[in-house]
Amino acid sequence: MGSANAVWPPDGRRRYWLEWLSFAIAVLLLGGYVGHFVYADRLRIDADERLRLVGVTALVEQNLARQLTVLDKSMLAAFADAVLVAGQAGGAAVLERRLTTLSETIPGVRTLVFLGADGTVVASNQPALVGRNFRDGERFRTASRGASAAVLY
Questions:
Q1: What confidence tens digit (pLDDT) does each residue in 19-43 have?
Q2: Measured between alpha carbons, how far is 18 from 1 in angstroms, rounded to an integer?
Q3: Which of 5, 49, 82, 99 could crosslink 125 through cysteines, CB 3.0-4.6 Å?
């Protein structure tokens, strides 16, 4: 077997292994140090972005609330016009002008229609739709089932 004074690894390679072990430990320590600062920076950026997102969300909510208020008032005014001019000569033309103005000023709205109780389009900003009947459409059935004057369908 070997003597008690024998050093592993034999043949003087001990220094070689110690240098590599020291190098590996130094690299791991340096990697941990850099990793710590990268992670801390990530946490700081995450917190900053969350604060920015909260601010942008509040701004969007404020602007959207204003737009929805204006939309609500505009639609209520158009509904009031529809009640006033219903059955009068030229009433449909007044409603069509009102709907055209609304659709041009409300972002994302292309088509607005007033439907009669039977599902026939009484007035629309799209003249091709006037007179068409949508009583078999899902939207008309949903609106007629709900039948709430407080809800815009």
A1: 899 999 999 999 999 999 999 999 9
A2: 25
A3: 99
CB neighbourhood size of 81 (10 A) = 18
- For the packed helices 91-105 and 14-85, what is the interaxial angle rounded to 10 degrees? 160
Q: Minimal CA–CA distance to 101: which of 134, 93, 152? A: 93
Residue 132 burial (CB < 10 Å; 0-12/13-18/19+)?
middle
Determine which helix (DSSP H) or strand (DSSP E) holds 113, and give its type and residue range. Answer: strand 113-115
pTM of the model: 0.52
Place of tokens 């949903």: 142
Query: In Å, how far are 78, 79, 126, 128, 137 from 134, measured between CA atoms?
Result: 21, 19, 15, 13, 5
Q: Tokens 């103005």 identify what position?
A: 101
d(CA 102, CA 69): 14
Question: How many CB atoms within 10 Å of residue 67?
Answer: 12
